């Protein structure tokens, strides 16, 4: 039986454009109970070969150089915004005005102010939004959130998070749009730290205070044209240009009383230039009765201890399996691992479920505002050396009760 058709429009056919498209396509297979049949209607990019790719390989019916055609297409119900950061505000506000629900990649805006503008437009238009905070969908993370909400780790004392990547560890790594202020906004703060802040908000609750420092290691890189290659590329002998944002950021944080970690403190660190970690996106949470440790490089397992007495002292290594998060929708047994793209399928499922009228459990634009507020305070602190208190952000889905 054919499911309910959902018309998909895509803005930008880069890495994330492909991943979003595959996620929609997978929905009828992974989540047949949703009863939806996504239809890839139209994709936009300014690189003509990527438009051809969208049609010939991804299966979009139409392609265009002008993203407005995506937003104005009558058959488009949802829009995936996978463009470089400088276009996010413009496209998301235009999508809201066109009455289209949007799935916007992180960071939502290049700054807190841009993110707030998108939130205002989405609220005024009454359209549903979701943000690409995909690490929320890791089964181990969902499990940690539940354990902490149930008090199984006791009182949370401290948290240690790192989002360490090596995509620009090579000094001749391409100067993609990610390194330019006008195109990206901040550097590793918006690119990786924003994910980590959202994870902290999702698993533990709102961060209340922050102080930070930032550092740029490689100040020049070979220029890469927009729409060519990826940010992992190494360019030998090219014309050099200036890196305009930070390679590394570290924050000290305190959690507020309205979190599940009231009074807890922690450190969050991000780098895009390390040699060694490939995608070490790790969260360690230490409570008075137990601890949880997870690292994306071994996404399907986590270490847990729930006692400080008796024979089970220290960590046990647990493989995620059916019954933990959405694992069971992908594989029938533990040990047959999920991958990064699967997190996007879970994200697409939650987005489409909310569009169909179910409770929104995915991140929304207010979660992006909460994350951007921390990043904005971190940038200010890196320049003035002070602690900054964060405003309370209403209507986030991170504040939703764990179940
Ligand atoms: N959630 C995650 O884990 C994750 C991972 C990677 C990237 N991202 C985010 O996704 C977004 C895209 O990143 P990416 O790595 O896919 O980038 P990318 O460089 O691979 O692709 C960007 C695409 O945008 C196109 N583009 C440029 N100007 C355009 C315009 N005016 N109209 C339409 N298209 C235009 C380019 O031609 C290119 O095809 C960024 O905001 C990034 O931060 C999120």
Question: What can you see in these coordinates?
Answer:
With 403 residues, the protein is an alpha/beta fold. The chain has two domains: 4-134, 3-Layer(aba) Sandwich (Rossmann fold); 136-332 and 362-389, Dihydrodipicolinate Reductase, domain 2 (2-Layer Sandwich), CATH 3.30.360.10. Helix content is 32%, strand content 24%. The chain has eleven helices and 17 strands. The chain has helices spanning 15-30, 48-58, 67-71, 88-97, 112-125, 139-149, 181-184, 188-203, 327-330, 340-355, 365-384; strands at residues 4-11, 36-44, 62-64, 78-81, 101-104, 129-131, 156-165, 207-215, 220-222, 240-242, 248-255, 265-271, 279-287, 291-295, 301-305, 316-319, 388-389. Strands 16-15-14-13-7-12-11-8-17 form a nine-stranded mixed β-sheet. Strands 3-2-1-4-5-6 form a six-stranded parallel β-sheet, with helices on both faces. The chain has a two-stranded antiparallel sheet with strand order 9-10. The chain is globular. Nicotinamide-adenine-dinucleotide is lined by residues 11-16, 44-47, 50, 67, 82-85, 87, 105-106, 132, 134, 191, 226-227, 230.
Which superfamily, in CATH terms, is the homologous superfamily of the largest domain? Answer: Dihydrodipicolinate Reductase, domain 2
Report, as a whole number of angstroms, the end-to-end distance: 31 Å
Q: What fraction, in percent, of the residue positions are helical?
A: 25-40%
Q: What is the topology, as strand order, of the major beta sheet?
A: 16-15-14-13-7-12-11-8-17
Q: In terms of per-residue confidence, which ranges show pLDDT below 50 for 5 or more consecutive residues?
A: none
Which CATH C-level class of the largest domain is it?
A: Alpha Beta
Large-scale geometry: globular
**Structural class determined from secondary elements:** alpha/beta
Q: Any guess at the CATH architecture of the largest domain?
A: 2-Layer Sandwich
The whole-angstrom Rg is: 21 Å
Mean pLDDT: 96
CATH topology of the largest domain, by name, is: Dihydrodipicolinate Reductase, domain 2
